[in-house]
Amino acid sequence: MTDGSPASDTAVLEAPPIDPAILGSTRLSALDEAAARELLADARTYEVSTGEHILAATDWPARVGVLLEGSVRWYLTAADGRQLTVRYGRAGELISRRSDAPREVSPLRIQAITSCRVLEFDPDALLRAMSSIPAVAMAFVNDFSLRLQDVYSTVADTAFGTMRQRVARHLIALAEAHGPTFGRPRAIVTQQQLADGTGSSREAVARTLAVLRDEEVIRTGPGFVEIIDGRRLASFLGEWRTEAHQIEPDLSFEAERLLEASPNAVVVVDRDGRIVFANESASRVFGWSVRDLLGRAVEVLIPETRRETHLGHRTTFLTAPHPRPMGLGRDLVGRREDGSEFPIAASLTTIDTRDGALVIATVVELPSRSNGLIGALGGSPSG
Questions:
Q1: Rounded to the nearest 5°, which phi and psi values hold at 111?
Q2: How far apart are CA 179 and CA 322, in angstroms?
Q3: Cα(174)–Cα(179) distance, integer angstroms
Q4: Using an 8 Å Cβ cutoff, are 62 and 124 in contact?
Q5: Model confidence, pTM
Q6: Which whole-number Å values give the CA distances from 94 to 278, 294, 298, in the listed order?
Q7: Could you state, in chain order, the average pLDDT of each consecutive group of 10 residues for the chain (383 residues)?
């Protein structure tokens, strides 16, 4: 499905007619129901995997749609294979390879950065809607203006920008597309992908990332770059870039630094019970690497015989969360990565973030043995 088309009829997620509510979170959300139904006549939805191309056919009429889920990039390819990313797009945006000039298709290609869900319009229905519904025409005019701004900025980046400015622009755009992880935006990208995006060499990107890392602006890991100081990173952008105002200070940056510095084990869990943060003390106490803990269910830190019960306690706690010590009057036990169990004391608190409520569990290893962690990460208090 490299051309952005469904591989078979089974790939189509919805058969026409499509519910107009599908436009609710897109740039076409202002359309009334009648206009939306006219625009959606014979439209289709389908999925595109990471790395595949969207709307890649070059035949006329050009293909146009809306990105319902995921993130994409528009890029150009030189004869020698080098690439230059012109812009990034995320859910809700219009996507096309039209230049909006009659019968002209842009040489830009659109690639899925993450898995995507696409709503593609029928060309005839789209042309009718653009002719008869001012709101549809205006949406595409606005989109065209935004694309022109991106092209101008990319030209300025290439002609005038330093490597630091170019890398900063891509990291900010990618981190916004992928969303934050416990307060810190994270760009899921490799050095080679950044080199492709900036039209430069991997070595030049690696040197720039090393400087930013030494200045404590970013933290790098396998396949990702985490933004530690978003305001400073945005300050590196050229004056022709407008993203700087989009990076607001986030108090959770400082909160995470404090948790990292804690001598006690600290684990942060989201509403689905997945670990989104663990400090080095948690790695030492539980025997897991921080990287291996992230994304796992918190129940991996609980003896197997108690896990099923703990699920219910965790749900109960999240319905009425409040700070409290756990296990008063009874014993609590944690489980290490190697399966061994050990006595602990623990406390819980919650914080509200832009991604929803998170539970912070602070765990202290005790010298004596006992038999249950039930309350430690979401159970019922004993006093």
A1: -120, 140
A2: 27
A3: 8
A4: no
A5: 0.54
A6: 38, 33, 39
A7: 43 63 86 89 90 71 82 84 82 72 61 89 88 85 75 75 87 71 74 85 93 91 85 75 45 60 85 85 92 85 76 61 47 87 83 72 74 42 38
Based on the domain organization, do 199 and 233 belong to the same domain? yes
Estimate the crossing angle of helix 163-178 against helix 202-214, to 10 degrees: 80
pLDDT at 47: 92
Q: Would you say residue 372 lies in a domain? A: no
Q: Are residues 15 and 153 located together in one domain of the fold?
A: yes
Total structural domains in the chain? 3
Quote the domain boundaries for residue 227: 163-249
Which residue shows structure tokens 């030209």? 155
CB-neighbour burial class of residue 99 (10 A; exposed 0-12, middle 13-18, buried 19+)? middle
Determine the pLDDT at residue 379. Answer: 44
Same domain, 156 and 168: no
> Looking at the structure, do residues 91 and 129 belong to the same domain, yes or no?
yes
DSSP-derived 3-state class of residue 147: helix
Q: Which residue has the tokens 């609710």?
A: 24
Specify the pLDDT at position 227: 87
State the DSSP code for 33: H
- Output the pLDDT for position 101: 41
CATH of the domain at 123: 2.60.120.10
